[in-house]
Amino acid sequence: MSECSSESESSNDSYSDEETTKLYEIMSDDRYSDVILVISDSVEFKSHRNLLGHSSKVFAKIFDNSNEIPVRISVKEFEAEIVKAALEFLYGKSDAIKGKEMNVFKFAEEYEIEELKKACIVPPERAMSAFYFWMGESRDLLKKPGMSVAEVAMAAGVEWKKVTDKSVRSVCITLF
């Protein structure tokens, strides 16, 4: 995977072993790319249909229905940084998504990339109940103009009762 514009590649320090690094280098060579993910008029990433099709049902369907080489796919609803992180993860750089999990999860959800979705679910650093995690993320959705803190908490309790799977993992998936 490489960006069409000439930008230096990231450091390979985070790879788990020599083979993963070699695979990443091979796949990063855009001479054999056959997919272009279009982010904007000026930003595109080259990639490979074998990797994307294997990882994603959505991409596989696009490739099955296209004779175009390279296949151009618009992913303009996502920022370049997020698409790049997702691609680097798929090419073996497991820490590429660090700090971007929420937005990368949305990309993985859109393109049905299960491995990436699982990698984006990160437990909270401190032990925190699923409710408090959910509440922290949902507060703005629940809060209506003029509501007191107590009223927001009561509304949250009502909504929390509707959540059937209250594990942190499930709550994260529901939110993102």
Automatic annotation (TrEMBL):
Residues 124-169 form the HMG box domain. Residues 124-169 bind DNA. GO terms for molecular function: DNA binding. The keyword DNA-binding applies. One of its GO terms (cellular component) is nucleus. It holds the Pfam family HMG_box. InterPro entries: BTB/POZ_dom, HMG_box_dom, HMG_box_dom_sf, SKP1/BTB/POZ_sf. This is BTB domain-containing protein. Keywords: DNA-binding, Nucleus. SUPFAM superfamilies: HMG-box, POZ domain. Signal peptide: none annotated. Residues 33-99 form the BTB domain.
